[in-house]
Amino acid sequence: MSKSVSFEEFARLYCSSQLSDPEELLAVLREKSEIYQPDGWVLLRCIVLDSSRLGERVILPYGGAATLKSVPNGPISPRGLTSDTSEVEAVLDIKEVLV
Known about the structure:
It is a single chain. The protein is an alpha+beta fold. The chain has a three-stranded antiparallel β-sheet. It has three helices and three strands; from the N terminus they run ααβββα. The protein has one domain (7-97). The longest helix has 15 residues, at 22-36.
């Protein structure tokens, strides 16, 4: 189940498991927003119990020129692999990025 969150919460979730901090994340999302012109960003978390990717998080844009046209309703594989099947953990509206 997806939930809309503030940038602070989105960054807390992502940065807690990455070598990144909120300022770096915001800079990257702003840069990529110019390319994809998305409606927002989804934070996906791998849910495959027997995968080395379990718990790994990735961020993908949705809407605009992005491959994802909307927030996924169920599990998806960001890399097209069964071993990285992920669920939406959080949704960030583009307005939170372009403040």
